[in-house]
């Protein structure tokens, strides 16, 4: 796809997504977890290409959909590698502290940086302050002098011009391939609460599984044929959204 056509397509997709979820984003402003959830649900509705809309947000299940079949409950679940997700969460707090240090430092010009957290990066709670100091110095050296300081925490810093100062974590891989056993585990975990979902909304329940972001903790779909396995579940329908690639699969 040509560059200009790609930009037009992305802009058009954003408009369609906002038309679906715009008013609901205002309801959850400041709640990052719920915002991510609503964005996934909006992408799901776009890719479903059916006459479906959000009826209202809820909890257990996460929202109610208005469909040709009536009101449907939709439960949302992100599939991740838990141990790697914990590492990402721990270093997210480090990076936010580093960002604040650089914001307060007048010698640092405005910038936006993407960085990778090294797969072996780790620290104990007692080391947190020292890690923040080390990573702050790594960024200062790179931003001011374009020098890489070898360190056990971050690598592959990429800078671009920006109106303020900000840092974003990117992974240095696309995670691991998704397997049928991982999908089954995610479904079974949600099935434990299925009766509660049904009681709360008195409607059929669909399950939306999501994977495929740009984090080490995410999974990617290596072979779509692996998704063609038989799923026995009490959920009325099960879908899998590969987020970054914008692909939707019907599993049941």
Describe the structure.
- This protein has helices at residues 3-27, 32-48, 82-103, 128-145, 180-191, 194-201, and strands spanning 53-57, 63-67, 70-78, 111-117, 154-160, 165-170, 176-177, 205-211, 219-220, 237-242, 247-250.
- It is α/β, with parallel strands linked by helices.
- Helix 1 (3-27) crosses helix 2 (32-48).
- The chain is elongated.
Helix content percent band: 40-55%
| Overall spatial form | elongated
H/E series, N to C? HHEEEHEHEEEHHEEEE
| Distance between the amino and carboxyl termini | 32 Å
Largest sheet composition: 6 strands, mixed
According to DSSP, the number of beta strands is 11
Compute the average pLDDT.
85
| Helix vs. strand class | alpha/beta
Q: How much strand content do the residues show?
A: 15-25%
Strand order of the largest sheet: 1-2-3-8-10-11
Short description:
The protein is an alpha/beta fold.
């Amino acid at each position: 796809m040509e560059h200009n056509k790609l930009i037009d397509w992305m802009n058009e997709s954003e408009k369609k997504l906002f038309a679906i979820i715009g008013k609901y984003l205002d309801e959850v402003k400041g709640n990052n977890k719920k915002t991510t959830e609503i964005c996934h649900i909006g992408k799901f509705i776009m890719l479903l290409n059916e006459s479906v809309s959000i009826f209202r947000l809820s909890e257990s299940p996460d929202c109610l959909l208005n469909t040709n079949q009536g009101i449907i409950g939709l439960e949302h679940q992100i599939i991740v590698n838990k141990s790697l997700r914990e590492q990402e969460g721990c270093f997210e707090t480090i990076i936010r502290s580093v960002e604040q240090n650089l914001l307060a430092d007048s010698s640092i010009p405005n910038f936006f940086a993407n960085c990778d957290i090294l797969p072996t990066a780790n620290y104990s709670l007692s080391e947190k302050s020292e890690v923040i100091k080390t990573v702050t110095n790594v960024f200062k050296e790179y931003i001011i002098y374009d020098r890489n300081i070898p360190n056990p925490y971050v690598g592959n810093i990429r800078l671009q011009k920006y109106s303020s100062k900000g840092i974003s974590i990117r992974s240095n891989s696309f995670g691991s391939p998704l397997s049928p056993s991982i999908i089954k585990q995610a479904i079974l975990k949600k099935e434990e609460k299925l009766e509660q979902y049904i009681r709360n909304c008195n409607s059929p329940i669909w399950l939306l599984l999501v994977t495929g972001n740009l984090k080490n903790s995410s999974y990617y779909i290596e072979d779509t044929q692996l998704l063609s396995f038989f799923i026995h579940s009490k959920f009325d329908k099960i879908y899998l959204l590969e987020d970054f690639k914008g692909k939707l699969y019907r599993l049941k």
